[in-house]
Amino acid sequence: MGRAVEHQQLSGLLDTAPLVTLTGPAGVGKSVLARAVLEEHTARHDGTVVRIGCWDGLADGGVTDALLRAAGLPDAAARRETARALAHRTAHPCVSNRRRGRAGRAELPDTSTPAVAAGGAALDALTAHCRKHRVTLLLDDCDPVLDECAQLVRRLLRADPGLRIMATARRPLGLPEERIAAIAPLPVTLGEGIADRPSSSSPSVPGPRHPSFW
């Protein structure tokens, strides 16, 4: 992969920072590098990785529900279905489960949970799962939902500052806890891969020797 220096430095950042974001242009290898670093990191710490790809077309519920599903936890739709089933089972047999709406039509009782409470419960479940299984979260290719990813990461780190999260994107998430690794394209030599030796008039086109970290 040709990223030994970046790999080593990212491993060090991940040991000390709750949020590490790899930034750089499309196709530079951010996702490949992130997975390689996390594979080694989780092997050293006997942990696991929960990854979502934000370019994969997230279903209803966005980033939060995608993470819950990836972690094997119930998402919003599953929680609503569970609430309805519980309400149906616990309803008194002599009391109708239906009520009349304004137009006189029968309606099912409202078993929904307020959005804030449901979201808080989902985050609590996710952070507890991460603690128990030593999970590192990988938000891969955040660009289509960058603001949503930033909001979710902010809430997760407030709930548990000990979480470890890695993100890849063209731009940083913009959070105070964030350590940023700007990944540059690998150096390319003109004529590389051609059988004939390049002439002295074909100079190499180097990239930066080291990534920028801040």
TrEMBL record:
Which key words are in the record?
ATP-binding, Nucleotide-binding
Q: Which GO terms describe its molecular function?
A: ATP binding
InterPro entries according to UniProt: AAA+_ATPase, AAA_16, P-loop_NTPase
Where in the sequence does UniProt note compositional bias of the Pro residues kind?
205-214
* Pfam families reported in the protein's UniProt record: AAA_16 (PF13191)
Give the highest taxon in the source lineage.
Answer: Bacteria
Please state every residue range assigned to the domain named AAA+ ATPase: 16-192
* Chain intervals for the UniProt region annotation (Disordered): 88-112, 193-214
Signal peptide (residue range): none
Compositional bias annotation for Basic residues: 88-103
Q: Which PANTHER family does the entry link to?
A: HTH-TYPE TRANSCRIPTIONAL REGULATOR RV0890C-RELATED (PTHR47691:SF3), REGULATOR-RELATED (PTHR47691)
Official protein name in the record: ATP-binding protein
Organism, as annotated: Streptomyces endophytica
